[in-house]
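Input (structure):
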């Protein structure tokens, strides 16, 4: 069978179903078990459903204030945790008066024990009114359920409807308490559905053109959106609405007027593209702009839809001519290096082929926190023989993958970065980025540069080893076995 039970999981044998090692001789329908609740006893790296809606879907909207209906801990978690930069410009010509407003400010109801007993709706109402008074320039107020308010049963939709009429602005309630789904993916779904039902089709854009598109599932991590926007501008395509990087509240309201939708993060945002197509007849294309070849192919696909192939071809040739010398340099330096891709969802199947094709790197492991069956099918198709594909990994499994598969670098999130460092393995953030943007032609060069700088950083030659009397093996102060060596290609000499 293609499944493997890690040594650290002997006491939780159900984990075997979540760990698949690619073997071409196995049936094509074999994939890891996924989109289920975490097995008790596992120290999961997942986020919750609230994180999915606030941390991903709505957190990038730049002209709303977010009111989290929760004890203070959840409110704190929802603030400033993502690199979603914004421009101040709004479609009506106004500007958001506070720079990076969406990253700097969040409000909460600060629920106490008495609110759990007697209900928190009064406090929610008070907090929304205070938010409207404190930030009169916002165009809407979004409010969020959390585990506590989900359990006590506060009717947030009723409060939102009442206050929308009283304030004269949209007040939208997002009912995705943390426990409402097995992963943050549930929050993505709720966020998509709520925004579609409450907003799409309620306003009209200032103007339209025959080349208007919705860019869906693009959150402008460290400026990704602006890279793509530049490409589309040069081709002659206009971004009518973004969902939701550098997005204004009103843009979501007129998504129904686009001529085509592009879905970039296909795990978090295909839902709203489906709904818009079903109700308004607007087709959508799933796109991938990570890596030069994928970027070129997808730009051409979009351009063909509008009959703009010549402009797209010219842009692609210009961009490739500019990055090719750098691409050749990094491929020479990174050829044969082993990489472990550990992302939330789609980057796990976006990245393995570009890393191999353009940099010569070998993906030895892929793991995700909230991917579904269709995503694992794509991952399996795009990785090589013997690659371990792991769903919802726990902390001990992370250590075992490092020891067994010996990646030269890990592309992951912030929670995993410092575990990797303790084992003497470099890590580049693939969720919030080190020095992005990472998308598009120049973005892939930024990623390659960060991978190169991390692997060849001389700090890995400064690890100190000490003898431990328990087993006689050499270990670092962080507990790394002498079997976890630092390659000579990485450091210039082998540490044993």
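Output (sequence):
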């Amino acid at each position: 069978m293609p499944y493997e039970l890690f040594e650290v999981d002997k006491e939780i044998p159900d984990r075997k179903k979540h760990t698949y090692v690619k073997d071409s001789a196995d049936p094509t329908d074999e994939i890891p078990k996924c989109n289920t609740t975490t097995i008790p006893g596992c120290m999961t790296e997942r986020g919750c459903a609230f994180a999915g809606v606030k941390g991903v879907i709505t957190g990038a909207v730049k002209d709303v204030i977010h009111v989290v209906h929760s004890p203070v801990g959840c409110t704190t978690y929802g603030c400033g945790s993502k690199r979603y930069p914004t421009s101040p410009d709004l479609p009506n010509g106004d500007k958001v008066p506070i720079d990076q407003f969406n990253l700097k400010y969040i409000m909460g109801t600060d629920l106490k024990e008495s609110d759990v007993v007697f209900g928190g709706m009064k406090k929610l109402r008070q907090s929304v009114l205070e938010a409207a008074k404190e930030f009169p320039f916002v165009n809407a107020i979004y409010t969020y359920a959390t585990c506590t308010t989900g359990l006590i049963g506060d009717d947030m939709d009723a409060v939102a409807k009442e206050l929308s009429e009283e304030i004269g602005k949209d007040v939208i309630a997002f009912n995705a308490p943390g426990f409402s789904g097995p992963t943050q993916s549930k929050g993505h779904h709720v966020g998509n559905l709520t925004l579609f039902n409450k907003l799409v089709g309620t306003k009209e854009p200032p103007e339209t053109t025959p080349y208007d598109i919705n860019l869906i599932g693009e959150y402008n991590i460290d400026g990704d959106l602006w890279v793509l926007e530049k490409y589309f501008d040069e081709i002659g395509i206009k971004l009518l609405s973004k969902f939701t990087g550098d997005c204004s509240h009103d843009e979501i309201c007129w998504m129904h007027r686009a001529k085509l939708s592009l879905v970039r993060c296909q795990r978090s945002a295909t839902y709203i593209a489906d709904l818009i197509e079903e109700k308004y007849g607007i087709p959508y294309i799933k796109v991938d702009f990570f890596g030069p070849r994928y970027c070129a192919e997808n730009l051409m696909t979009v351009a063909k839809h509008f009959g703009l192939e010549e402009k797209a071809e010219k842009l692609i040739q210009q961009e490739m001519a500019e990055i090719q010398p750098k691409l050749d340099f990094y491929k020479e330096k990174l050829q044969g290096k082993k990489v472990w891709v550990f992302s939330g969802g789609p980057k796990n199947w976006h990245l393995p082929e570009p890393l191999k094709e353009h940099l010569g790197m070998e993906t030895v492991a892929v793991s995700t926190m909230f991917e579904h069956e269709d995503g694992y099918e794509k991952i399996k198709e795009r990785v090589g023989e013997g690659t371990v594909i792991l769903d919802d990994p726990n902390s001990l499994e992370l250590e075992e993958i490092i020891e067994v598969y010996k990646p030269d670098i890990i592309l992951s999130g912030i929670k995993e970065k410092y575990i990797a460092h303790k084992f003497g393995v470099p890590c580049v953030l693939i969720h919030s980025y080190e020095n992005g943007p990472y998308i598009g032609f120049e973005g892939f060069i930024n990623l390659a540069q960060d991978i190169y700088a991390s692997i060849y950083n001389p700090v890995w030659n400064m690890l100190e080893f000490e003898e431990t009397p328990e087993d006689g093996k050499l270990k670092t102060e962080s507990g790394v076995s002498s079997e976890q060596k630092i390659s000579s290609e990485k450091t210039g000499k082998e540490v044993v």
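Notes: The mean pLDDT is 91. The longest strand covers residues 212-218.
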